[in-house]
Here is the input.
Amino acid sequence: RRAPDLPLTSLRSRLALGLALAAALIGLAGGVLWSVTEAKKLRQGLEERQNRLAALAANGLDWPLWNLDAAAAGALLDTLMSDPEVVSVELTAVGLGARPQSRQRKDHDGGQRIERYFNIEHGRGEDRAVLGTAKLVFSTGPIEAELRTTQRFIVGLLSAVLATLVIGCYWWVNRLVRG
Here is the structure.
Protein backbone atom coordinates (compact mmCIF):
# COMPACT_ATOMS: atom_id res chain seq x y z
CA ARG A 1 0.00 0.00 0.00
CA ARG A 2 1.28 3.45 -0.94
CA ALA A 3 1.47 6.42 1.45
CA PRO A 4 -0.77 9.37 0.53
CA ASP A 5 0.97 12.04 -1.56
CA LEU A 6 1.66 15.42 -0.06
CA PRO A 7 -0.37 18.18 -1.75
CA LEU A 8 2.48 19.50 -3.94
CA THR A 9 4.32 16.23 -4.58
CA SER A 10 1.66 14.52 -6.66
CA LEU A 11 1.95 14.74 -10.42
CA ARG A 12 -1.47 16.27 -10.74
CA SER A 13 -0.73 19.06 -8.22
CA ARG A 14 2.60 19.89 -9.84
CA LEU A 15 1.06 20.03 -13.31
CA ALA A 16 -1.80 22.24 -12.14
CA LEU A 17 0.59 24.52 -10.24
CA GLY A 18 2.96 24.73 -13.22
CA LEU A 19 0.18 25.63 -15.64
CA ALA A 20 -1.28 28.19 -13.24
CA LEU A 21 2.15 29.74 -12.62
CA ALA A 22 2.88 29.96 -16.34
CA ALA A 23 -0.51 31.56 -16.98
CA ALA A 24 0.03 33.99 -14.11
CA LEU A 25 3.43 35.07 -15.43
CA ILE A 26 2.11 35.53 -18.95
CA GLY A 27 -0.89 37.46 -17.60
CA LEU A 28 1.31 39.61 -15.36
CA ALA A 29 3.64 40.45 -18.24
CA GLY A 30 0.67 41.36 -20.43
CA GLY A 31 -0.87 43.47 -17.66
CA VAL A 32 2.35 45.38 -17.04
CA LEU A 33 2.82 45.97 -20.77
CA TRP A 34 -0.77 47.17 -21.12
CA SER A 35 -0.41 49.48 -18.11
CA VAL A 36 2.87 50.99 -19.36
CA THR A 37 1.42 51.50 -22.85
CA GLU A 38 -1.70 53.14 -21.42
CA ALA A 39 0.38 55.44 -19.19
CA LYS A 40 2.53 56.51 -22.15
CA LYS A 41 -0.57 57.19 -24.24
CA LEU A 42 -2.21 59.25 -21.48
CA ARG A 43 0.93 61.32 -20.86
CA GLN A 44 1.35 61.96 -24.58
CA GLY A 45 -2.28 63.07 -24.78
CA LEU A 46 -1.72 65.47 -21.86
CA GLU A 47 1.31 66.96 -23.61
CA GLU A 48 -0.69 67.46 -26.80
CA ARG A 49 -3.51 69.16 -24.85
CA GLN A 50 -0.94 71.41 -23.16
CA ASN A 51 0.41 72.49 -26.52
CA ARG A 52 -3.07 73.16 -27.90
CA LEU A 53 -4.19 75.16 -24.86
CA ALA A 54 -0.98 77.22 -24.84
CA ALA A 55 -1.38 78.01 -28.55
CA LEU A 56 -5.07 78.81 -28.05
CA ALA A 57 -4.27 81.12 -25.15
CA ALA A 58 -1.42 82.84 -27.00
CA ASN A 59 -3.60 83.43 -30.07
CA GLY A 60 -6.72 84.36 -28.12
CA LEU A 61 -5.13 86.78 -25.68
CA ASP A 62 -3.25 88.96 -28.17
CA TRP A 63 -6.20 91.19 -29.14
CA PRO A 64 -7.46 91.76 -25.58
CA LEU A 65 -3.94 92.73 -24.48
CA TRP A 66 -3.39 94.89 -27.57
CA ASN A 67 -6.66 96.73 -26.87
CA LEU A 68 -6.02 96.82 -23.09
CA ASP A 69 -9.29 94.95 -22.54
CA ALA A 70 -8.88 93.36 -19.10
CA ALA A 71 -12.46 92.01 -19.07
CA ALA A 72 -11.99 90.05 -22.30
CA ALA A 73 -8.61 88.73 -21.10
CA GLY A 74 -10.24 87.65 -17.82
CA ALA A 75 -13.00 85.85 -19.71
CA LEU A 76 -10.41 83.94 -21.71
CA LEU A 77 -8.61 83.00 -18.48
CA ASP A 78 -11.92 81.69 -17.11
CA THR A 79 -12.36 79.64 -20.29
CA LEU A 80 -8.89 78.12 -19.88
CA MET A 81 -9.77 77.17 -16.30
CA SER A 82 -12.71 75.11 -17.56
CA ASP A 83 -10.26 72.37 -18.55
CA PRO A 84 -10.04 69.92 -15.61
CA GLU A 85 -6.28 69.47 -16.06
CA VAL A 86 -5.55 73.21 -15.71
CA VAL A 87 -4.73 74.10 -12.10
CA SER A 88 -3.91 77.77 -12.59
CA VAL A 89 -3.27 80.37 -15.24
CA GLU A 90 -1.38 83.65 -14.86
CA LEU A 91 -1.20 86.50 -17.33
CA THR A 92 1.25 89.38 -17.08
CA ALA A 93 0.85 92.15 -19.63
CA VAL A 94 3.79 94.32 -20.62
CA GLY A 95 3.24 98.02 -20.59
CA LEU A 96 1.37 100.86 -19.01
CA GLY A 97 0.70 99.88 -15.42
CA ALA A 98 -0.74 96.53 -16.36
CA ARG A 99 -1.63 94.37 -13.38
CA PRO A 100 -1.16 90.61 -13.57
CA GLN A 101 -4.31 88.54 -13.81
CA SER A 102 -4.57 85.00 -12.51
CA ARG A 103 -7.05 82.24 -11.89
CA GLN A 104 -6.49 79.24 -9.65
CA ARG A 105 -8.49 76.09 -9.00
CA LYS A 106 -9.45 75.69 -5.36
CA ASP A 107 -10.04 71.94 -5.51
CA HIS A 108 -6.64 70.76 -6.73
CA ASP A 109 -6.75 67.01 -7.17
CA GLY A 110 -3.13 66.21 -6.41
CA GLY A 111 -0.85 64.83 -9.04
CA GLN A 112 2.31 66.32 -10.41
CA ARG A 113 2.19 69.93 -11.56
CA ILE A 114 3.55 70.86 -14.96
CA GLU A 115 4.20 74.53 -15.73
CA ARG A 116 4.08 75.89 -19.26
CA TYR A 117 5.32 79.43 -20.02
CA PHE A 118 4.71 81.27 -23.28
CA ASN A 119 4.73 84.76 -24.76
CA ILE A 120 1.68 86.52 -26.09
CA GLU A 121 2.59 88.28 -29.31
CA HIS A 122 0.69 90.56 -31.63
CA GLY A 123 1.42 91.06 -35.29
CA ARG A 124 3.32 89.07 -37.86
CA GLY A 125 6.91 89.01 -39.06
CA GLU A 126 8.96 92.09 -38.22
CA ASP A 127 5.93 93.91 -36.78
CA ARG A 128 5.55 91.30 -34.02
CA ALA A 129 5.47 92.72 -30.51
CA VAL A 130 5.46 90.85 -27.21
CA LEU A 131 2.40 92.03 -25.28
CA GLY A 132 2.76 89.80 -22.26
CA THR A 133 3.69 86.46 -20.82
CA ALA A 134 1.51 83.71 -19.49
CA LYS A 135 1.91 80.62 -17.37
CA LEU A 136 -0.39 77.62 -17.50
CA VAL A 137 -0.08 75.06 -14.71
CA PHE A 138 -1.41 71.59 -15.46
CA SER A 139 -1.99 68.66 -13.14
CA THR A 140 -1.38 65.01 -13.94
CA GLY A 141 -4.09 64.09 -11.39
CA PRO A 142 -6.86 63.29 -13.92
CA ILE A 143 -4.64 61.01 -16.02
CA GLU A 144 -3.25 59.35 -12.89
CA ALA A 145 -6.82 58.63 -11.74
CA GLU A 146 -7.63 57.16 -15.15
CA LEU A 147 -4.46 55.06 -15.01
CA ARG A 148 -5.38 53.75 -11.55
CA THR A 149 -8.81 52.77 -12.88
CA THR A 150 -7.16 50.93 -15.78
CA GLN A 151 -4.77 49.17 -13.41
CA ARG A 152 -7.64 48.06 -11.17
CA PHE A 153 -9.41 46.69 -14.23
CA ILE A 154 -6.26 44.80 -15.27
CA VAL A 155 -5.80 43.32 -11.77
CA GLY A 156 -9.46 42.26 -11.64
CA LEU A 157 -9.30 40.74 -15.11
CA LEU A 158 -6.07 38.89 -14.32
CA SER A 159 -7.50 37.61 -11.04
CA ALA A 160 -10.58 36.26 -12.78
CA VAL A 161 -8.53 34.64 -15.55
CA LEU A 162 -6.09 33.14 -13.06
CA ALA A 163 -8.88 31.74 -10.88
CA THR A 164 -10.52 30.24 -13.94
CA LEU A 165 -7.22 28.76 -15.09
CA VAL A 166 -6.40 27.27 -11.70
CA ILE A 167 -9.81 25.62 -11.44
CA GLY A 168 -9.71 24.53 -15.08
CA CYS A 169 -6.16 23.19 -14.82
CA TYR A 170 -6.97 21.29 -11.66
CA TRP A 171 -10.04 19.75 -13.29
CA TRP A 172 -8.21 19.01 -16.55
CA VAL A 173 -5.13 17.48 -14.88
CA ASN A 174 -7.30 15.51 -12.46
CA ARG A 175 -9.27 14.12 -15.40
CA LEU A 176 -6.10 13.34 -17.37
CA VAL A 177 -4.47 11.47 -14.48
CA ARG A 178 -7.59 9.45 -13.71
CA GLY A 179 -8.46 9.14 -17.33
